[in-house]
Amino acid sequence: MRIRTSAKVFNCRFRKPEGRITGPVRARALGRKWAVGALFSAGLMMVWTLGVLASPSPNLTIEAELIWGTNAKSSPNEKHKPVDAELKKKLQELPLKWTNYFEVKRILIELPPHGTRRAPLSGKCELELSDRGQSKIEVSHYGNGKLISTRTQALPKGETLILGGNAPGETSWLVVLRRLQ
């Protein structure tokens, strides 16, 4: 019984129905359907591609840290805390003459794609960051309202950029920038 049912279904599936279009007319009809389907698929692909390209790039998240370098064992300002061990090791690998480093201030800066942000680090120190695209940033450092330096450099995620200068006496200041996002 089972074999006959299968055979009957098989015959129904592949039997040529009467009244169907065959030959060159059918080929043209299928060709048109194929062309419409291909155009529809290409249109969907184009819309998807434009959507991906038009989606905004994420903001760059940069951590800026104002550091005070000295040979003194402690900072005269009790609000300053020693920098973490990883940063201290990195600073000691540089050709700097100071043995101790203290964090004055730490901030996060959200930099929009191809945008510019100004961020004060202290009453005397201010940064202006600009996204130059392709992981490059431009950093302008202002001291007492005057431009001290400008630097453009690639800053990939996880990398560190250190800017520095002299301060009164046997001390220095450093600005440490880390790209988080």
Tertiary shape: elongated
Number of helices: 3
Percentage of β-strand residues: 35-45%
Mean pLDDT: 80
> What's the number of domains?
2
The tally of strands reads 9
- Rg, please? 33 Å
Q: Note poorly predicted spans.
A: 5-11
Structural classification: alpha+beta
- Helix content range of the residues, please? 25-40%
Sheet with most strands:
5 strands, antiparallel
Terminal-residue CA separation: 69 Å
Looking across the biggest beta sheet, what order are the strands in? 2-3-1-9-8
Element order: H for helix, E for strand: HHEEHEEEEEEE
How would you concisely characterize the structure shown here?
This protein is of the alpha+beta class and 181 residues long.
Walkthrough of the structure:
The structure is a single chain. By secondary structure, the chain is an alpha+beta fold. It has two domains: 2-54; 60-179, no CATH class. Helices cover 29% and strands 40% of the residues. It is built from three helices and nine strands. The strands form two sheets. The chain has a five-stranded antiparallel beta sheet, with no helix packed on it. The protein has a four-stranded antiparallel beta sheet with strand order 4-5-6-7, with no helix packed on it. The longest helix has 31 residues, at 24-54. The chain is elongated, with a radius of gyration of 33 Å.
